[in-house]
């Protein structure tokens, strides 16, 4: 008598198995990911080996010929930078981002640029009508006779549109709203998303047809749907930006045909989306006079060096627990720097409220901004302004050391290009030496432990 299988259902996210179906995985706590084990493996019976044809037998890797994947530019330089030079025939790209950040606007611009090169582009929207898309295209100047629009939510109909139009580029907005009638479950479910993505990617590979898919994100910022979706596609791009500002960034999280450390910069305007090839001045608020509590650092966004201004405000308080408010910087990193300043530099901050922010809404996550944050706080605490042409970058350790950071030469070159001639970086071995250079010539009343002399006016 044959024995029954030990598990009949399996989670598509983490592989957890169970004898009975459950709406929620007992291991990763994901909803709707527990399906039949036969469905996940495709094994509905005993699998037997098949006789392979001559051309399908595995060959030595040294005998396999490779065809170089040639990129063709989309016409949007910043987007081509992120993709590694442009689109590759048969590439599957997943573009994710929060609602309203501008994903559809960017891809409509990509479609319009391709259509202007006399390429047939099929733009499939499962969220908007063709009339709504045309209204946006008229506003952004993206009208072209070779840009074909379709509003479809059924996978079979979309595949039929591809057969009828025979496009050179396909855009599907979005993959979570398309469903297949042959698969159980509603649109956006793990099974549906996996089936829809697999079918579109298979068409892309068979016809050497670039396919761009729009993906939704969850409330924590991750791509909605099964994790296998990111494994199926060739390129995963993340479109991010703050709704309070017009600046947008496109980052690559995965790229099989190019680097994964490039960043494209865009600006949302009333006429659509605009490239920002040189965003160096977007994160600076430099006036004619130096102001206390400000310091400029050079951050790396991919391979691009961007100067960013860090602002700090230190205010005395009588509250038992002083406030520590941050915007654009890591709060735990700022707390560590406050402890280093108080212990190593004798800057008293335990009885003061400290506010630290960046200009332009940029987020500083790398430790290279430590020195600039510490100098901005010390400048605000002493009410002494740093020189107007001053820039600093370096990681600060708990021992008070200024550690080297990556691409120091690139940061210094960009700073000098923008006119910052007074640079303090990892060349200083200790934070005390860096502070001595920064506040050299400051009057008494500056940060304790820093050499003082004459010469700077108090702001």
TrEMBL record:
Region (Lon-protease-like): 353-459
Free-text comment about domains: The middle region has homology to RecA with ATPase motifs including the RadA KNRFG motif, while the C-terminus is homologous to Lon protease.
Record keywords, A-Z: ATP-binding, DNA damage, DNA repair, DNA-binding, Hydrolase, Metal-binding, Nucleotide-binding, Stress response, Zinc, Zinc-finger
Phylogenetic placement of the source organism: Bacteria, Bacillati, Actinomycetota, Actinomycetes, Micrococcales
Positions that bind ATP: 97-104
A Gene Ontology BP annotation from the UniProt entry: recombinational repair
Organism annotation: Subtercola vilae
Free-text function comment from the UniProt entry: Plays a role in repairing double-strand DNA breaks, probably involving stabilizing or processing branched DNA or blocked replication forks. DNA-dependent ATPase involved in processing of recombination intermediates, plays a role in repairing DNA breaks. Stimulates the branch migration of RecA-mediated strand transfer reactions, allowing the 3' invading strand to extend heteroduplex DNA faster. Binds ssDNA in the presence of ADP but not other nucleotides, has ATPase activity that is stimulated by ssDNA and various branched DNA structures, but inhibited by SSB. Does not have RecA's homology-searching function.
Name of the protein: DNA repair protein RadA
HAMAP family for the chain: RadA_bact
PROSITE patterns hit by this protein: RECA_2 (PS50162)
